[in-house]
Amino acid sequence: MKDAYLGIDVGSISTKGVILDDEKHILSSAYIWTEGDPIGAVKRLLGLLEAPFDQSEYRIVASGTTGSARRLAGAVVGATMVKNEITAHAVGTTAFYPETRTILEIGGQDSKIILVENGVAVDYAMNTLCAAGTGAFLSSQSRRLGIEVEDMGQIALRSKHPTQIAARCTVFAESDLVHKIQMGHSKEDIVAGLCQAVVANYLNNVAKGKRIETPVVFQGGVSKNVGVVAAFERALHCQVRVDENGHLMGAIGAALLAKSGSARQEFRFATQEVEFKTREAKCGRCSNNCEIICVYRDGKMIDAWGNRCEKGDVMHRKAQ
Questions:
Q1: What's the pLDDT score for residue 316?
Q2: Entry pTM
Q3: From 164's CA, which of 37, 195, 239, 286 has a CA 20 to 30 Å away?
Q4: What beta strand segments (E) does the chain contain?
Q5: Do 28 and 49 form a contact (C-beta atoms < 8 A)?
Q6: Rounded to an integer, what is the distance from CA 210 to the centroid of its chain?
Q7: CA atoms within a 13 Å half-sphere pointing along the CA-CB vector of 161
Q8: Cβ 121 vs Cβ 112: under 8 Å
């Protein structure tokens, strides 16, 4: 049997997963919507990953999780590695593009920039407050325009004179968009303007004060939009590389981190019939009054986090 490694990236909008072999080849991958249910999303994801995965030839010996719900996903799969998305994206990207200096990432609800030196993330910034520079913004505007969000990029490339659209925040951008529609701007020009607005918002907020150096890699769901890619290249005056699996790079990084770790596991896909629940508990053992998140599998607590001191270490007390 050959070894394989599972990586899962659970975000607020989407959940991504990959299984890699020792040569970093993708044996199975999946991308689904989280739909406000990270546990359910991980279960569905595992079902999609299992179908094409050849379990007669490979066995998963380690798993890693990342993203906003990484601890929860890690508890579900018994992850041997749980890492933040900055580390996961940097590891995944530099594994395929070792000369990378700047990583631009725009997802469904947040975006980030990671600066890399010698394959190591040395600085980063994230934006989780405004949706004007994210995939959720483009998706909502595509519905307003009556087009599929997947078609926005090609439509934008047909524009000769992109419409100037305010990019300060979602409210201003939407108001300006309606005004430009009423003025008779073409759909191609408006879509190209939206792509430019996303880039302007990103560079003026997320990347503000950061020195963007080449080579530049763009990833996240929005990297599939060729209109946004073109807008970045015009703004930065350089080539912006997009990997065909850029939307999976967080999960790829998580799998590679699991591979590099020393911990190993006997992973099984059978989670559909297992019941996972989370409960919030107030510690109350000191003035911090921490909110502890407890995860239960079939009624038995398997993980807990949220404590800021040892008094709230529920798992330690449970083991005594």
A1: 59
A2: 0.84
A3: 239
A4: 2-10, 14-20, 26-33, 58-66, 81-82, 102-106, 111-117, 120-127, 216-219, 240-241, 276-282, 291-297, 300-305
A5: yes
A6: 21
A7: 2
A8: no
User: How many contiguous H segments (helices) and E segments (strands) does the chain have?
Assistant: 10, 13
Report phi then psi at 223, rounded to 5. Answer: -65, -15
Task: Choose among 136, 123, 129, 132: nearest CA to 86.
Answer: 123
What gap in Å lies between CA 161 and CA 98, rounded to an integer?
Answer: 37
What the block records as the tokens of 286 is 């000191």
Residues in the chain: 320
pLDDT < 70: residue spans in the chain: 128-133, 167-170, 272, 315-320
Q: In what order do the strands lie in the sheet with 120-127?
A: 120-127, 111-117, 102-106, 216-219, 240-241
pLDDT at 130: 63
Q: Say how far apart CA 137 and CA 107 lie, in whole Å.
A: 10
pLDDT, position 320: 47
Taking the C-alpha atoms of residue 217 and residue 167, their distance in angstroms, rounded to an integer, is 23
Strand order of the β-sheet with 81-82 is 26-33, 14-20, 2-10, 58-66, 81-82
Residues near 188 by Cβ (< 8 Å), separated by ≥ 6?
A: 155, 156, 158, 159, 160
Identify the pLDDT of residue 317: 64
C-alpha–C-alpha distance, residues 43 and 61, integer Å: 19
- Residue of 168, 191, 171, 169 whose CA lies nearest to 180: 191
- Any residues with CB less than 8 A from the CB of 234 and at least 6 apart, and which? none
Task: Map tokens 């790079």 to a residue.
Answer: 249
Q: What is the DSSP letter of 224?
A: G
Cβ proximity of 304 and 286 under 8 Å: no
Quote the CA–CA distance of 196 and 192 in Å, as a whole number.
6
Which pLDDT does position 191 carry in this prediction? 93
* DSSP at 172: H
Q: Residue 120 to residues 29, 54, 88, 316: CA-CA distances in angstroms?
A: 26, 33, 11, 33
Report the pLDDT value the prediction gives residue 107, as an integer from 0 to 100: 82
